Amino acid sequence: MRFRKLILVLGILAPALMSLQSAFAEVNRVDMQVDGMTCPFCVYGIEKKLKALQEVIDAEANLKTGIVDIELNEDESLDIERLNEAVRESGFSPGRIKIKATGKLTKYEWGEKQYPALRVTGSRQVFIISPTPNHEKEEFLGEKKLSEMEKATEGGKKEITVTGYVHSHPAGVPPALSVESFEVQ
Amino acid sequence: MFKKNLVAFCMLFLSILFIAPANGVLAAGINTNVALPVRKGGFVFRSQARWLRATDDSTSLDREVNVVAIPNVLVYGATPDLSLFAIVPYIFRNVKFTDPSSGKRTEKDDNGIGDSILLGRYTVYARDYPSGTARFALIGGIKLPTGDDDLEPITTESIDFPLGWVSTVTWDFGRHELDADFIYRINTEADDFEKGDDLVYDLAYEFRVYPWTLPEVGAPNFIYLVAEANGIYSQKGELDGKTIENSGGHTLFLSPGIQFASKRYILEASIQLPIIQSLNGAQVETDFILSAGIRVNLP
After folding, report:
1. Would you say B240 and B282 are in contact if contact means Cβ atoms under 8 Å apart?
2. Per the CB < 8 Å rule, is A91 touching B219?
3. What is the sign, positive or negative, of the torsion defined by CA atoms of A93, B22, B197, B245?
4. Which segments of chain B have a pLDDT < 50?
5. Would you list which residues of chain B are within 8 Å, Cβ to Cβ, of chain A?
6. pLDDT at A115
7. What is the average per-residue pLDDT within A24-35?
């Protein structure tokens, strides 16, 4: 009897548990360029400062590339300025931040305009998809590429994994994402 | 009176035991200061054992001096640009000499805490690149007479003021590093004794020999070979208003060394060999300074 009740309870809870799992934020990867890193003793301070942030679970510097791989807490949003400040406080210079995030295409209203955006799965994180390049060397999302993304996601219905560079906006406005590549789930 | 006689008796080039390693707490030259940052709110600890041996005495005293100094340095990152240093050395000194009155060989041992140094280093220029960094910082501070009187003239009653600059350049993803510093120490008079001012200049080049090629991921442990030139020029001292003729001069050391650097620790060893010793009057010449040390990134 008890066994049947257990199965019943699990049966009821299962969908909820599954939905909880899918509710985890899916900023899959954050790669931050940090200039000036020269030796393992120096990178200790950078990793320490980044790991002290609530949203960061782990940070590991790569001396060959000058990039710090950052693992974000699944419940937290990416705050570019906080990452930059942590690197500055360690005495080094923050560079570009590249992310890989999974979510759905949406629209974001900024002023009187609507901008294409990516709402990250399972979180409140939104990236405004940047129509213009933030950095000269970056690929950026032109109208053609945006229409390709919208078509591939069937108008935003399917999930999409996007890789690109981010930069911050004024407080209260989501960060921008300059799309380098995308992949529909 | 005995103390004053001892001061005159033991004048030696000892400033280099403490000035040079004062703020070199990050990976770089072993006997040269560096301009690399300490994270805001972070602490780094450095301790070295530096053994100076000086035996070449042209006088009938035939002095033989051995000094082991252990400068302990605690560094605090007040801001990304401003680091504060507290240096407290512990010193052992052994002097052997021939007593002029009895002709017997005599030995004297002293040990105790040396004079403390408080320093600030402020980065005035920093340019970071993906493959390296270039930095220039000013340093200045104060030497306090906290040392044991028995250790004079290594310790002095005076309050002194080291001032200078330090610079670091690294390139090729940590393969090469160049450090330089230039520190002038204004030594004041106290207890009728004034040690002459010191000018310390250092140049260090580090070459990473391991790993020869950086791995694709992570920050591996490094091994550097280090070559340094460490110079010190000291003015003559004064005792009771009279110049101590057997004091001051110029010494330049060539200092090969090796350094192991990980994220938490640096282990290092170096030997400083004098290639120029132009000392005033009859002084004991330094044979070498052997140093070994550790630096720790405190959590």
Report:
1. no
2. no
3. negative
4. 1-2, 8, 19-27
5. 26-27, 36-42, 77, 80-81, 123, 126, 128-133, 170, 173-174, 177, 214-222, 261-266, 295, 297, 299
6. 86
7. 83
CATH of residue A112's domain is 2.40.50
Q: Is the entire prediction scored with pTM above 0.90?
A: no
What is the ipTM, given to two decimal places? 0.86
Q: Above 60 in pLDDT, residue A171?
A: yes
Q: Which helix (H) or strand (E) holds A152?
A: helix A143-152
Q: Can you give the residue ranges of every domain in chain B?
A: 2-297
CB–CB of B227/B213 below 8 Å?
Answer: no
At residue A20, the pLDDT reads: 39
> How buried is A121 (Cβ within 10 angstroms: 0-12 exposed, 13-18 middle, 19+ buried)?
buried
Distance from CA of B133 to the nearest CA of A (A): 5
The architecture (CATH level 2) of B2-297 comes to Beta Barrel (2.40)
Measured between beta carbons, the chain A residues lying within 8 angstroms of B265 are: 41
Where in the sequence is the domain holding A76, given as residue range(s)?
Answer: 27-97
Asked if residue A102 and residue A82 are part of one domain, the reply reads: no
